[in-house]
Write a structure and sequence with these properties.
The chain has 267 residues and is an all-alpha fold. Among the domains are: 93 residues, EF-hand (Recoverin, domain 1, Orthogonal Bundle), CATH 1.10.238.10; 64 residues, Orthogonal Bundle (Recoverin, domain 1), CATH 1.10.238. Helices cover 47% and strands 1% of the residues. It has nine helices and two strands; from the N terminus they run ααααααβααβα. A two-stranded antiparallel sheet has the order 1-2. α2 crosses α3, α7 crosses α8 and α8 crosses α9. About 17% of the residues have low confidence.
Length: 267
């Protein structure tokens, strides 16, 4: 008799089911992540606040020789001069920094430019000063060309020549020059000093960009409406210090401020 067929091999045991991974995050996990992020943010804010306070206290301890709790004109000049390249800070530069610190407190330009700088304004003053110094070579080149009497400031005629060059050789009218001069002259001496050059060029390009369609801010009574520019729009310039009224562009957004002078160069 034939041998019986071999028995079929036993089936291999099934592999245990693997858990299915999912990208879903539970509500508790989300809360945990949020708590970690908030803690890190609070820690960063506290660190920056501590560094700011340390900077203020160190500045006062070193430069407040009068123990007034603020920096007088001479003390401010000494502080700025320490970080100045190419010589000590000039009186106009010191007045400019003081005006930036005080323009929200004192509406009179000359008074703001001569007032003491309070501790809470030290960090902003230092930031503005460093940004200005980074643009100093560019500013000096402009003044070498347009400051014909080497006074260290641009009068109306010299400012007109500068704006004409920025305007592709088309001379601006008197109302445009007066408007730029009024708002860029932050220290109130009737001229454009070196640290005010960034403001002057920014205002000019903003005025050209507006094409006369936007009214000047209500905060500037003497310039109820921006004068119509003499030429087609020019490339946008960097912003100038914020507290001085600036014209609005075609988008209706005000020009924002910075002490840097990236648009000061001329061909």
């Amino acid at each position: 008799a034939a041998a019986p067929p071999p028995a079929p091999a036993a089936a291999a045991p099934a592999a245990p089911a693997k858990p299915i991974k999912t990208a879903a995050v539970s509500l508790e996990e989300l809360k945990s992540i949020k708590r970690v992020n908030q803690a890190a943010r609070r820690k960063d804010i506290a660190r920056k606040k501590e560094a700011r306070n340390d900077f203020i206290q160190q500045t006062l301890a070193k430069w407040d020789k009068s123990n007034s709790g603020a920096l007088t004109f001479d003390e401010l000049k000494a502080w700025l001069s320490e970080s100045s390249v190419g010589g000590p800070a000039t009186d106009d530069e010191v007045r400019w920094i003081a005006s930036l610190a005080n323009m929200d407190k004192l509406k009179d330009k000359a008074l703001a430019a001569s007032a003491s700088v309070l501790p809470q304004d030290f960090p902003a003053a230092a930031k503005a000063w460093l940004a200005y110094k980074e643009s100093k070579d560019e500013i000096e080149a402009v003044f070498a060309r347009f400051d014909s009497d080497k006074s260290g400031a641009l009068d109306k005629a010299q400012l007109t020549e500068l704006l004409k060059t920025l305007n592709d050789g088309v001379a601006p009218n008197d109302s445009e020059v007066d408007w730029v001069m009024e708002h860029a002259d932050q220290i109130g001496n009737g001229k454009i000093t070196k640290p005010e050059l960034a403001m002057a060029t920014a205002l000019w390009f903003a005025l050209v960009d507006s094409d006369g369609k936007e009214a000047a801010p209500q905060a500037a009574p003497a310039a109820a409406a921006a004068p119509k520019p003499a030429a087609a729009p020019a490339p946008a310039a960097p912003a100038a210090p914020a507290a001085t009224p600036t014209p609005q562009g075609t988008t209706g957004q005000p020009v924002k401020a910075t002490p840097a002078c990236g648009g000061c160069s001329v061909q």
